């Protein structure tokens, strides 16, 4: 039995990056031998085991053969006769097909170290095109390593296009797709992930509602980048630069889907795109099986981001309705995420990335003002039921009127409102 460190741990050590987890491959052993040593199987039909003490994954060296559609359409062969090189050749990218032995010696049959030095994401073999999930994985690696100057090899991008055109992407389960999409959105350059999928034709298959935004113009006066797809990419980049959580990034990806439904004869205006966008946002949420918090925030940002941009112009009654929609009394964090998404939207415009967004502070202050209104004095007056609700609403509205007067006064030069 010989054990080798493989994959990401080897790659990231050579890149001098933090190593989050270590995977191992076992050559010259059988499943029975690992079980006898206390290893725990991950699944009944897959040769991967957890170390009895460290919990790290140990996989038997194996080969794979395409036997059906999709990510799971493979049969594998694991036996003591499978060599390390054979196991490495089944992997996706050359930079992921390296191994180290116990003495730290590098085994690199696919020239992964050279591609690391030259900053190429390159497939190992034509078998790459047999697994549709690899399109998403490569796009995710591009998003992770773009700050280091990595780019996808032309021949690999060609295979990704081939996979996108084959219809194989439709065989991916929502769970597998979401796992890759959500991880990619949290990489340093999530915009590179979406652009890569768009460039190879995969975005049209996986997220056609987002793909439809490319080539759709917006008014240049408010959106110097003009193209709606480019705007969404810029918003995602702002999300990464400001370390926004996944729910905010997901909402920002989907916030302008309504603009993809605007008839061409109405361009570059997009009247009522917020309301029009709710149906495609729901469709994407459902198809991707996004977590509930991501789904809820995406719908709220899609419907109300224009309100966020016009916050300083809103009447107190409209502002109160907005705060009520977000339930700022019991779910303050969701409103904070809404504010963050609005700010990323405003900053995701060409040349305006550093412009202040005073709406953020104003909205936070408004939420604090209504939360400061207590119900106890109304209860002491004997109010209850509908009368109590109406009185509480009046008190909150009065608090917002006072807040607006104190916060804004009579500004001589009101801040610029980013148009949706």
TrEMBL record:
- Superkingdom is Bacteria
Name the positions where ATP binds: 8, 11, 91, 137, 140
Tell me one Pfam family matched here: PolyA_pol
User: Does this entry carry the keyword Nucleotidyltransferase?
Assistant: yes
Query: Recorded E.C. number(s)?
Result: 2.7.7.72, 3.1.3.-, 3.1.4.-
| Record field: catalytic activity | a tRNA precursor + 2 CTP + ATP = a tRNA with a 3' CCA end + 3 diphosphate; a tRNA with a 3' CCA end + 2 CTP + ATP = a tRNA with a 3' CCACCA end + 3 diphosphate
Q: What are the recorded GO MF terms, alphabetically?
A: ATP binding; CCA tRNA nucleotidyltransferase activity; cyclic-nucleotide phosphodiesterase activity; magnesium ion binding; phosphatase activity; tRNA binding
What are the BP-aspect GO terms? RNA repair; tRNA 3'-terminal CCA addition
Q: Which InterPro entries match?
A: CCA_bact, HD/PDEase_dom, HD_domain, NT_sf, PolA_pol_head_dom, PolyA_RNA-bd, tRNA_CCA-adding_enzyme
Keywords, A to Z, come to: ATP-binding, Hydrolase, Magnesium, Metal-binding, Multifunctional enzyme, Nickel, Nucleotide-binding, Nucleotidyltransferase, RNA repair, RNA-binding, Transferase, tRNA processing
| Residue ranges of domain HD in the record | 228-329
Entry-linked Gene3D superfamilies? Beta Polymerase, domain 2, cca-adding enzyme, domain 2
Cofactor annotation: Ni(2+); Mg(2+)
Binding, CTP: 8, 11, 91, 137, 140
Co-factor binding comment? Nickel for phosphatase activity.
Any idea which positions bind Mg(2+)? 21, 23
Miscellaneous note, as given in the UniProt record, is: A single active site specifically recognizes both ATP and CTP and is responsible for their addition.
Homology family: Belongs to the tRNA nucleotidyltransferase/poly(A) polymerase family. Bacterial CCA-adding enzyme type 1 subfamily.
Q: What is known of its domains?
A: Comprises two domains: an N-terminal domain containing the nucleotidyltransferase activity and a C-terminal HD domain associated with both phosphodiesterase and phosphatase activities.
What NCBIfam families is this protein classified in?
PRK10885.1
Oligomeric form and interacting partners: Monomer. Can also form homodimers and oligomers.
**Summary of the function given for this chain in its UniProt record:** Catalyzes the addition and repair of the essential 3'-terminal CCA sequence in tRNAs without using a nucleic acid template. Adds these three nucleotides in the order of C, C, and A to the tRNA nucleotide-73, using CTP and ATP as substrates and producing inorganic pyrophosphate. tRNA 3'-terminal CCA addition is required both for tRNA processing and repair. Also involved in tRNA surveillance by mediating tandem CCA addition to generate a CCACCA at the 3' terminus of unstable tRNAs. While stable tRNAs receive only 3'-terminal CCA, unstable tRNAs are marked with CCACCA and rapidly degraded.
Q: What is this protein called?
A: Multifunctional CCA protein
> Organism source for this protein?
Azotobacter chroococcum
In the UniProt record, what gene is named as encoding this protein? cca
